[in-house]
Amino acid sequence: MKKIFKNVKYEKYYKDILPYIKKDKNQQYFAIILTLGASIFFALFAINPTLATIVKLRREVEDSKMVEKQLSQKVKNMSALSQAYQNIQEDIPFLLEAIPLQPEAPTLIAQIQSVAQDAETPISNIIVSPVNLVASPATESSKIHFELTTQATYANVNKLLTNLTEIQRVVSIDSFSITNTGVDSASVELNLKGSALFKK
Predict the structure, then answer these.
(1) Please, which contacts does 38-41 make with residues 24 or more away whose CB atoms are closer than 8 Å?
(2) 108-141: burial string, b at 16+ Cβ within 10 Å, e else
(3) Which residues contact 194 (CB under 8 A, 6 or more apart)?
(4) What's the average model confidence in pLDDT over 135-146?
(5) Per-residue pLDDT tens for 151-184?
(6) pLDDT value of residue 117
(7) Kind of pairing, strands 123-128 and 187-199?
(8) Does the model's pTM come out above 0.90?
(9) DSSP per residue over 83-122, as a string?
(10) Full strand arrangement of the beta sheet holding 171-180
């Protein structure tokens, strides 16, 4: 390899190129080429940070648009929730009557006595059990239990059972038994156990 470069006659190439370079016109072309080359070389170093900045700004703009879109969607969701709340706002008192925040045992007894009177089934005995203050994990609510006894005709007892499930307070009939009183063939005795929900 060294021998090859040693055999190259640089003086010959230099002597051939030198007259060509000495010409004014060629010197101008050569100067223009060098100027353009230098300009392009330095421009690349100057433009590269600018291009990087442009790319970064574009990404920031895209991120900002995405954030704006998400915020716009959240605003729409909040508006929809607000509208839904306004739609049910009038129903909230009825919901609180159905499942009150407290046991409200006296109110429950009054409602039971009212439907019993309407069904013509006089209540001879009603007991409300102690309130369980431990809420159920599944529903986060608790129950107040009650028992009642009444004597009436079978039709009236059946009406009472129907009316109990239709009162504003959410009441469930857990169990009941109907037996003949023996006094009158049309008269039966109802022993009922039920419960009502309340929200703590």
Answers:
(1) none
(2) bbebbeebbeebebebeebebeeeeeeeeeeeee
(3) 145, 146, 147, 148, 164, 171, 172, 173, 174
(4) 66
(5) 999 899 999 999 988 888 888 889 999 888 766 6
(6) 92
(7) unpaired
(8) no
(9) HHHHHHGGGHHHHHHHS-SS--HHHHHHHHHHHHHHTT--
(10) 123-128, 141-153, 187-199, 171-180
Q: Which amino acid is at 28?
A: Q
- Assigned token pair, 170: 């959410």
Whole-number average pLDDT of the chain: 78
State the Rg of the chain over Cα: 48
**Is the pLDDT confidence value at 143 over 50?**
yes
DSSP state of 123: E
Q: What is the pLDDT of residues 109-132, one digit of tens each?
A: 999 999 999 999 999 999 888 665
Name the more confident of 192 and 9: 192
CB atoms within 10 A of CB 73: 10
End-to-end CA distance of the chain: 96
User: Region 131-140: what's the mean pLDDT?
Assistant: 51
Q: How far apart are CA 67 and CA 60, in angstroms?
A: 10
- The C-alpha atoms of residue 54 and residue 135 are separated, in whole angstroms, by 60
